[in-house]
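Sequence only, no structure available. Ideas?
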Amino acid sequence: MVRTEAPEDAYTAEPFVPGRGGLSALRKAAAECRGCPLHREATQTVFGEGSKDARVMLVGEQPGDQEDRQGKPFVGPAGRLLDRALAEAGIDPAEAYVTNAVKHFKFTQAEPRKRRIHKAPNLREMTACGPWLAAELAVVEPELIVVLGATAGKALLGSSFRVTQVRGTVLEEEIHGRPERLVPTVHPSSVLRADDREAAYRGLVSDLKVAAQALG
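Reply:
I predicted one. Tokens follow.
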């Protein structure tokens, strides 16, 4: 039973997370989440996608413009680049579970019908959304988490996380009460913004090869 007695926008998703059920139950409940103010402007909740038996979980920052419109994670340009990099590194994208630390698109918009500009979620919003990520981890039980970018890293590993210091390494940490192995790397959107896009892409593939090796 979903409990919704908490005040709207109390900065915790906890009352909206069902106590039982698989990914479909979580996805359905997340569509009604009012745990922080981001739901007000976003088109819809964008929950994770993939098999409950996935060996690897990829965690990004938040949905982008295309994800917000389509209701699925990593369907925009960054997602297509990620799929290509995963395949090149030896990880089948179809066998991964992909999600975001924050499930609603946060953006700024100068005026209606103008382009919506991505805005990074703050620590309070990431913490509010944490119960959804904890629930996904509990159901999927991945062998490895690939952390995509600084925001996802801070959501999982704390505010002192710096992706440049630990990218391409295998970390062992307790996440939401579970021992996990993690490989941090950059978010694929940063590759698209890089001055030397080819070098940035090669770096992403190199980090993902570490993840592939860790999976065996």
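The radius of gyration is 16 Å.
Hope that gets you unstuck.
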